[in-house]
Every structure is written in structure tokens, then in C-alpha cells.
Design a protein that fits this description.
Blueprint: H1 9-19, E1 27-29, E2 37-39, H2 42-50, E3 71-76, H3 82-98, E4 101-104, H4 111-123, E5 128-132, H5 141-149, E6 154-161, E7 183-187, H6 189-204, E8 209-214, H7 221-235, E9 240-245, H8 251-265, E10 271-274, H9 280-289, E11 297-302, H10 305-313, E12 317-323, H11 325-340, E13 353-356, H12 377-385
Parallel strand pairs: 3-4, 3-5, 5-6, 6-7, 8-9, 8-10, 10-11, 11-12
Antiparallel strand pairs: 1-2, 12-13
Helix pairs in contact: 1-6, 2-6, 3-11, 4-5, 6-7, 8-9, 11-12
Amino acid sequence: MRSPLVRVAAAVALALTLGACSTSGGTTDTSGGGSAKIDAGAAQRVADLKALPKFVAPGPAVDVSKLRGKKVFVLPLLTTNEYNNEIIKALQKVAAKAGIAMEVYSNEGQPNQWVAGMNQAIAKKVDLILLSGGTDPRALQPQIKAARAAGIPVEVTMFWDTSAKNAPECGELSVDCVSGVDAYVAAPYQVASRANVDWIAVDSKGTAQILVIKSDDAGPSPGQEAAIKDQLATVCPSCKATYVNVPISKWTTSVQSTVQSELVRNPKIDYILPLYDNLSTYTVAGITAAGKKGKVKVVTFNGTPAVLKDIQSGDTVAMDVGESLEGIAFAAMDNAFRLLAGMEPSRNEVVPIRVFDKTNVGEAGTPPTVNKGYGDLEQNYLKLWGLG
């Protein structure tokens, strides 16, 4: 079994390029009343991320025709939200084109359910296990070890951040050391968090009062919080931020009430930054319940179509750093194909991201869909796999 990649070179380069505050060229005093000093490079970084991303081939071509009949078991973070389910749909579409048998394990995001799913996959002697959309491999170390012993490779997607400099088994990450993973697709969590701050700084002219909704039990969340604090200190020193923790298991039950109470406690809050846009529906409900609709903007990350539609309708959500949900699936299946074909996993799987606000959200479709706004990813990947 192969060790996971040592560096995610292209993704790290992207994070360093877009996230490095020190190269922004100082600060500038925006014009108009009520403005404050903001980072001079913030507006340009936002503009760069609004542009259509370019496709970068993750590696050499893969002859997928030899993989027909292989069995892939998908264990998602959970199957109760649009984000994960859209990724699943794209995974299933690719599997069908390649003649791959795919089983998806339904769950509600509980670690005991993940354990049961892993045990089921191992018992079925599948050819590959895909922990999809943020499933935490730290909670599955005995099962990953058992899969390795059974000769079943394990891939993890959207759990580690692109800023990770070492492979998961080597430590020095924003998450605990994890061993036994054969490939992974990292996520631009911290790049997106910095882009959120840049956009808010420009939009508020450096005067934002921000409520950040985090989830400390989500692996990327601590790193995202650190990135937000770091970016605010340089980009928008006059902005103020409050951080509240809502565990994953309480997203559906506690976000609305938390938002409502925070807005009552501090009526000066004019931006809310849920780290993941799955929280946006509950966030908007909390804003409405507090009587603050039209006075508070939501800025977030993931690019879920329903949230992009809210931007189009002007309904409270003002900006979403979108990541191509189909792109996540394509990158995941690309590495799955490489493992199944006996090839080295790619060290350059990059999920395209794009800042969407009212100026460009129409490019995501009307209504938005997962396969618009990021370029022709599907055809590029199909060509790489010999399927297009």
C-alpha cells in the first residue's frame, strides 16, 4: 500500500498566493464617510477569485476502461444536506460512465454510523473505500487499519486543508496525525476564509462587525478560525469579530437561536460568516427572527446551489466562495481510478473555487447548478480518463 502524498504542491501554492497578507502592498484609506483603513490588495484578490478558474490536469491519463466492474464504497460525512448529496450525485454519474459499481452509505454524521459503514465495506470486500465530503478519518483509525489489512485502499476527501505541508501520517497538520490513508483530495478551507475576510473588508469599507459561526468539532474549523483572525489583523484592523461555536450535531437545532440571540446581544453586527454554507438557511432564519433582515449580510463558503440562488434573489446571502461540487467528485474519482489502476495517486488534485456575489452569480446558472460557473470540468476529466 502506498503512503499518501507528501505535499499538495499546487494547492499549497494557491493558498500561499491568495492567502499571504504580507504581499498585499500595505493599507489604503477608502473614500466616503464611515470608512477605515483596509488592505490595499484585498479588492484585487477578490477580483482575481471572481474570474473563471482554469483547469489544471492532475496527472497523466488513466485508462479507465480496464476498471469496469470494480466496487467503490462511499462513506459521506452525512447524507442529510445538499452539499454532500450533490457531491454524491456527481460521484455516481462518473461511476456510471466508467462502469464502476458504487454503494453510498446513508448516515446522519454520527461516528458510530461511520464505524458501521466501514465494517460493512470491509465485509463486502470492496475495491476501494472513499470517505467523502469531510468524513473524519481520526474517528476510524481501527477500521482504516483493518481495511489496509484486507488490501482495500482508503481515500479521504475535503477533510484536510490545502495548507497541509506534510502527508496525514506525518503530523504537523491542523488536524491530528492520521495513518493508513492512500490518497486524499484537500480542500481550500483557509483560502476561502481569507477570501471571506477580503470581501467583507472591501464591502464594509473596513468597518464590519462580524459574527463568525464555527464548529470546533469539524476538523478544518480551528484552522479556518485562525486564518480569519490572521487576515482580519492585516486586512481589516478596524473590523471586529465575535466567534460562536455550534457543534455539527446541533447545526439544525441551534444555529437559528444562536444567531438570533447574538444579534439581540450586539445589534451592531452587520455581517455573519458561517464557515460552511449548509448553515446559511438557519443563519438567515435567525436574522429574520431577530428583525434584522436587510441589515445583516451573510458571507460563507461552499457554493451550494440553493445558497447561490439566495444571492441571485438578494435574500440576505451576499457572497459565497464556491467550490465546484462536481469538481470535488471528479478529483475524488480521479484519484480513485489511479489507485484502482495501480498508479500513484495524484499530488495535484485541485478543487476549483470562485467568489460568487451579485456581480457574477448569474454565471452559475439560473437557477444555479453544480456544473456551471467553473469551466468545462466534466469534459476535461472525461478526456483524461478516455471516456470523452
